[in-house]
Amino acid sequence: MKKITNFFKHIFNFFDRFIILPITRLVYKINKRLSVPNKKFESWLSKQTTLLFLSLFISIAIFIIVDQKIINFSSQNAEVLKDQKVNVNYDSELYVVEGLPETVDVTLIGSKADLYIAKQSTNNGVTVNLKGLKPGTHRVNIEYDRGNNSIEYSVNPSVATVIIHKKISDIRQLSYDVINDDRLDNTLIVNSVKLSTEQVTIRGAEYKIKQVATVKALIDLNNLSVKEAGVQKLNDVVLKAYDSEGNVVDVEIVPVNPPTTVSAEVDLASPSKKVALNFVPKGNLVTGKAIAGYTFSQNEVTIYGDSDVLSKINSLDVEVDVSNITSNTSFRAEIKRPSGVKSISTNYITVDLTVTDSSSEPVRFTIALTGINLADGLIAQPIDNNNGFITVEVQGASSVLSSISESDITVYVDLSGLGEGRHTKEVIVRGSNPLVSYRALRTEATVNITKK
């Protein structure tokens, strides 16, 4: 009981000494300075209840100020240093370390002056000391070199579980991949690449070395800004190791012999070929009308691409929609770019069409039926009363029809994938002159396929 009494006595003495007495003195000074004495005001301030309520009000105000940190009573400050690089102390020639974070956050606590000095000092930053540790799993501390003993700090994370592997080496063949080839000028291609070395050494943990299926030098054409053919040199070529599924394997890659980086000589070529243009009408003209002739603003273009692709292309088609044409007309036609062709000297030309009346009577030709795409070791014979001959009607302008002959027309059936036996196939007619229309009077033909 005595202890409780002493406790409340100490509380009363605290309020009396630090709150009631200072407030009383303040009231006395205010009252003394008043020019006109005010008995009622003096009497009110002298009441014990008034002083208690006034003290309670000031206490509450002080509590709110402190609780809401309106006034900072502490000289301590905190600052967070984000993404601080972790420096590892170990023998990198002998070991590989896994499990350490690349960066951590460091919180510094101290006065503003100390924080400023700490940030300006050239200390070692965040460090992990692995010296003396052998291969295996270890739990290590991540520490911060504060450089100032008056600074407190915390690191997040402050502990890491690391795995130390013995580093081994292996020699591998170096190949290359060309990337960003779409960034190269359309008239250029990569003719060849010569690397400064054919072999590299890969270093890392044994299980990582076993994962490596291939090592490649990445020839990044985005680093070339040339517009002409010739040999260009790339320095510091990026090297990557890949597993059998094409995933990157994290190992160290260095050339077998100095220098420590790989360079490449990239031979850029510009293969090209001039090809003719073919007029290909699409759609049907108005009944009774025919195309008597056409002219192109240019009859050939230059194409660019791989030599193997260009060797297979001898001409390009220019498609023109002739639907509903009744008189002479001029078109701006697009030249379609074949697959594999990187660029064409021009993508559009002007086509002028001469339109006239169609001949009142079509011209007929009797053409022998042939088969295409027949498998080796087989022969095909037509089965019909005409011994495999098909009548073809040709319709167009009279001036054009007069120049058409049987040699301009081919009639065939496609025998792709067919074996022995009888087969009925669609009859296809092709003519060399695009200004006229061709129509077979028989749309199907039956052939008998036998072995030779």
| Name of the CATH architecture of the largest domain | Beta Complex
Distance between the termini: 127 Å
* H/I helix tally: 7
Compute the average pLDDT.
85
Using the coordinates shown, work out and report the CATH topology of the largest domain: RNA Polymerase Alpha Subunit, Chain A, domain 2
Side by side, the strands of the main sheet go: 6-4-1-3-7
Which structural category fits the helices and strands?
A: alpha+beta
Detailed description of the structure:
- The protein is an alpha+beta fold and 452 residues long.
- It folds into five domains: 2-67, no CATH class; 77-166, RNA Polymerase Alpha Subunit, Chain A, domain 2 (Beta Complex); 168-267, RNA Polymerase Alpha Subunit, Chain A, domain 2 (Beta Complex); 272-357, RNA Polymerase Alpha Subunit, Chain A, domain 2 (Beta Complex), CATH 2.170.120.40; 363-451, RNA Polymerase Alpha Subunit, Chain A, domain 2.
- It has helices at residues 2-33, 39-46, 48-67, 112-120, 206-211, 307-310, 398-401, and strands at 77-89, 95-98, 103-110, 126-129, 136-141, 143-144, 152-156, 159-166, 168-179, 189-195, 199-204, 214-220, 230-234, 238-242, 252-255, 264-269, 272-282, 289-296, 300-305, 315-321, 329-334, 341-344, 348-357, 363-372, 378-382, 389-395, 409-414, 421-426, 428-431, 437-440, 444-451.
- It has a five-stranded mixed β-sheet.
- The chain starts with a helix and ends with a strand.
- Mean pLDDT is 85; it is low at 69-73.
Topology:
Blueprint: H1 2-33, H2 39-46, H3 48-67, E1 77-89, E2 95-98, E3 103-110, H4 112-120, E4 126-129, E5 136-141, E6 143-144, E7 152-156, E8 159-166, E9 168-179, E10 189-195, E11 199-204, H5 206-211, E12 214-220, E13 230-234, E14 238-242, E15 252-255, E16 264-269, E17 272-282, E18 289-296, E19 300-305, H6 307-310, E20 315-321, E21 329-334, E22 341-344, E23 348-357, E24 363-372, E25 378-382, E26 389-395, H7 398-401, E27 409-414, E28 421-426, E29 428-431, E30 437-440, E31 444-451
Parallel strand pairs: 1-4, 9-12, 17-20, 24-27
Antiparallel strand pairs: 1-3, 2-8, 3-7, 4-6, 5-8, 9-11, 10-16, 11-15, 12-14, 13-16, 17-19, 18-23, 19-22, 21-23, 24-26, 25-31, 26-30, 27-29, 28-31
